[in-house]
Design goal:
2 copies of one chain form a homodimer.
Chain A (H helix, E strand, L loop, with lengths): L2 H13 L16 H16 L3 E4 L5 E5 L8 E7 L12 H17 L6 E7 L12 H7 L17 H8 L16 E9 L4 H5 L3 E7 L3 E8 L3 E2 L10 H15 L6 E3 L3 E4 L5 E2 L2 E9 L3 H21 L3 E9 L3 E2 L2 H15 L4 E4 L4 H5 L5 E6 L15 H23 L15
Parallel strand pairs in A: 3-4, 3-5, 5-16, 6-15
Antiparallel strand pairs in A: 1-2, 2-4, 6-14, 6-16, 7-12, 7-13, 8-11, 9-12, 10-12
Helix pairs in contact in A: 1-3, 1-11, 3-11, 7-8, 9-11
């Protein structure tokens, strides 16, 4: 069986580990499904000759030593958790590809000048506790102690979930790697957009990862009986609907990707005009400047709509991340890998966040995108081609070998105008 | 203290019996708040010399016998339950006014040719179990046994709630009155609209009560990551928002009152484009024909919006009631009462449903509207003028005396082209 086929079948096997019935996928942080996915992937890592462990944040780690034990590690990875009603490739495919690359390196019999680690992060999506990238932030050493109070939909705190999973919250610091122990981080991930498909390319090279801003917008009007004539209404849900449509209409012209994924109306009775409505807003762009300027326009328009309707509006900012630019050396290594398999690489910006964003505060990061059908993700219809997966395995493997070659020959960057990359 | 002041103070006292904190009002069927409200109102009934009991559906009843015990009863009433975050007058004011009228009749010392009953229905709003008018439908003998399976938000069935409240579900039939035991039903209620205020009138005479149609509209698109470009999206929530706005824009021209009071998006994550969205739709009009024709237009427009966006749509009809026309004799009696206090009565159609709708299948019904500030109801801002309440007490009292006069003199309808009104 080809490596790519193995990868796809493993994605299928992991998809069966789900909190939802009927083939739907949901696997969130620190659940029984998380534990089962870690155990299954650990078995595959062990098959590939790796030493495996679960770190203090519940991330699954597998390690192949390099030329001698204890060398700094090049980390390949992505996440094993999912959104509700997820597809089977977002995150998971990157971990399985990394695993195949490690298996190839092992099978080649020749040692690398660094250790090679594969990591399956426990939380990237933030589905269960709202905050995202908990797994990679623990590894990057940017864990925020205020997170312990975060609660899931059933009221369980993150601290309680740690204990229930068998983890010691007080040991969270031990999940953090030291920069000197890490060579870099490479991640393969489905594109979650249609550009590679449109251009007829299997793989893409990520230039930067957009930092999203997220907020809750609360619109307040006046609850009233459904018999209330229109002139006497101050309908918060009609106002929210107008705002949601305006955001959709304005965003492309502002070079934004804006999403309203959640909405509710209060009191929420079938025969009561909504007194208030809340919706979430997620805004991304190629740069922080474009994003912030566009967001200002969207909120001003929402404000105008509210004023026209006698409604008031409140914005609660819940998340903001800066755009992360991929590291030149890691990107160059990936470019080498892509060239070998797919011709001159196409450079893309990632509107979606990734574990590489968190890892960038620990080490140099690079990312590889894999074409996905219709650009669809976070949906059961997520789909990839076996030949693209094969290309991604080849490219990531080639990138690892390229890094090994430049690392072992100590090709230092002075003549290439790049900074030293092992601090 | 004036009768009207007493009525308003009693509404304040009942408002304090609530499941919500901070002065917000919610009092739903078969709860501890329902029991407490019944006990308080029963004490006031007893003060007015009435015999009181709770019927097999949890409706509070008080009775003043007429010239001799066991005569058929004229029933005055409304409901004591509320929506969430309710005002203090919707329903409650009608019961308290009825109670004052009974007190006046008692105080006058002269017996009526029929018994006089005051009823505080336990459920009109349908807040807890979804189906409305449970109290008055039990009394009207139109209880539907399929309701026993209805569940509240905590999963308790209506049957379980009956038992927990101390009622015997199997005795529900005993709440039903026999038509020959009832003279008619009169209800005073706040207008829940702005027409009386606009016309400068304290009271209005209700011609008919619109039957609402209610449904859930489910729009299905495709869930996708928030990074998905617009061209690749099939955003169910954007489609629902466009439909909600179209319904608001089209309804007045179709002579409809349409309300979307509830909405949700699935999966409902901040970073996922909604794969589906559900909203409720409540439609009312002056006649069933206008309502049904208008609804067809609204749904066709929603269908068109969905087609443009690559979305599909499904409608689940959850409720339909026919328009109820008030009885000529009862209406004439109320008109006499209003003339005495407020000049030639203004006739109004009620877009809101009322207990009188259910009672109409048992007996002749008549309704009186009381001006409320801004037409606002189902909201803490519900407000009435003390002088209007005084006028309503006078008018309802006068209507009772008018019915007593025509009843005792046996003024039969042959010469007035009205049907005999005691079967």
């Amino acid at each position: 069986m080809s490596n790519a086929r193995t990868v796809l079948e493993r994605c299928d096997e992991l998809a069966a580990i789900s909190a939802l019935p009927d083939g739907l996928i949901e696997r969130t942080y620190l659940t029984v499904e998380h534990k089962a996915a870690n155990e299954l992937a650990a078995a595959w890592m062990a098959q590939a000759g790796m030493v495996t462990w679960q770190d203090a944040a519940g991330n699954l780690c597998g390690r192949l030593e390099g030329g001698h034990p204890g060398l700094p590690a090049l980390i390949l990875g992505s996440h094993l958790d999912t959104v509700p009603q997820a597809g089977r490739y977002d995150g998971i495919l990157g971990v399985m590809i990394a695993l195949e690359v490690a298996a190839r390196v092992r099978a080649s019999g020749s040692a690398l000048p660094f250790a090679l680690e594969v990591v399956g992060f426990g939380d990237e999506e933030g589905t269960r506790f709202g905050a995202t990238l908990l797994g990679s932030r623990a590894m990057a050493g940017t864990w925020d102690p205020t997170w312990w109070q975060l609660a899931d939909g059933d009221g369980a705190s993150l601290r309680e979930a740690f204990t229930a999973f068998g983890l010691d919250p007080d040991a969270i610091g031990s999940a953090a790697r030291r920069p000197q122990d890490v060579v870099g981080y490479l991640e393969a991930h489905i594109e979650q957009g249609p550009i590679l498909e449109e251009r007829g390319r299997a793989l893409g090279l990520v230039s930067s990862i957009a930092g999203a801003r997220r907020m809750l917008v609360t619109i307040t009007g006046r609850a009233a009986h459904a018999a209330t004539p229109y002139a006497a209404r101050r309908d918060a849900l009609a106002g929210a609907s107008e705002a949601i449509l305006a955001i959709e209409a304005l965003a492309p012209g502002l070079e934004l990707i804006a999403t309203v994924g959640r909405v509710s109306a209060m009191p929420g009775a079938v025969n009561v005009v909504a007194g208030s409505a809340v919706f979430s807003l997620d805004v991304r762009a190629a740069s922080d400047e474009v994003r912030d300027a566009g967001l200002e326009t969207l909120l001003a328009e929402t404000e105008r709509i509210c004023a026209c309707r006698g409604l008031s509006m409140r914005v609660e900012h819940t998340h903001a991340a800066e755009t992360v630019h991929c590291d030149p050396l890691m990107t160059e290594a990936l470019a080498h890998g892509i060239v070998a398999d797919d011709g001159q690489p196409l450079s893309l910006f990632s509107p979606a966040g990734h574990d590489a964003m968190a890892m960038a505060s620990l080490t140099r990061v690079g990312m590889l995108f894999i074409r996905c059908a219709g650009g669809v993700s976070h949906n059961p219809e997520e789909s990839v081609l076996e030949e693209d997966v094969a290309a991604a395995i080849d490219a990531l493997h080639a990138a690892v070998l390229h890094l090994a070659a430049t690392y072992s020959t100590d090709a230092r960057p002075a003549d290439r105008k790049m900074p030293a990359w092992i601090m």
